[in-house]
Automatic annotation (TrEMBL):
Predominant cellular place of this UniProt entry's protein: other
Subcellular location: Lipid droplet; Membrane
Name the record gives this protein: Oleosin
PROSITE patterns: OLEOSINS
Bilayer topology annotation: Multi-pass membrane protein
Natural source organism: Arabidopsis lyrata subsp. lyrata (Lyre-leaved rock-cress)
Assigned protein family: Belongs to the oleosin family.
Residues that span the membrane, as ranges: 76-96
UniProt KW keywords: Lipid droplet, Membrane, Transmembrane, Transmembrane helix
GO cellular component, one term: membrane
Protein's GO biological process: lipid storage; post-embryonic development; reproductive structure development
Length: 143
């Protein structure tokens, strides 16, 4: 019987966690418990604040709702205006770099598109020049 317990105890000792693993577990458990307590306190504070603020919000809602809507619209307007200004400044900077030959990002695509548009314009120009001659020839043969 003692012979059987010795391999079991040896296996048990080999599979037991190291001191480092125990410290890690205790540290993680302490941090997790602390965060759980803090989240509970935060939830409690939020509920208490909501209970206190609800009657005030009901009393002042005819004033607060339009004020919040107005402030929201003003904020969105300022943010949109600022975004448009940043976009315009970025576009003008890109155009300046492109015109001055500094080859900004995407310039090769613009050059390719410009080349394709020029080719199509030449094709359409030749087509447009040949159209009046063909129309003129068909009208003179029908009369």
């Amino acid at each position: 019987m003692a012979d059987q317990q010795q391999p079991i105890m040896k296996n048990l000792h080999e599979s037991s966690p190291s001191t480092r693993q125990i410290v890690r577990f205790l540290t993680a458990a302490t941090i997790g418990l602390s965060l759980l307590v803090l989240s509970g306190l935060t939830l409690t504070g939020t509920v208490i604040g909501l209970v206190v603020a609800t009657p005030l919000m009901v009393l002042f809602s005819p004033v607060l709702v339009p004020a919040v809507i107005t402030m929201g619209l003003l904020t969105m307007g300022f943010l949109f205006s600022g975004g448009c200004g940043v976009a315009a400044a970025t576009a003008l900077t890109w155009i300046y770099k492109y015109v001055s030959g500094k080859h900004p990002m995407g310039a090769d695509k613009v050059d390719y598109a410009r080349m394709r548009i020029a080719e199509k314009a030449k094709e359409l120009g030749h087509y447009a020049q040949s159209q009046p001659q063909q129309t003129h020839q068909t009208t003179t043969t029908t009369h």
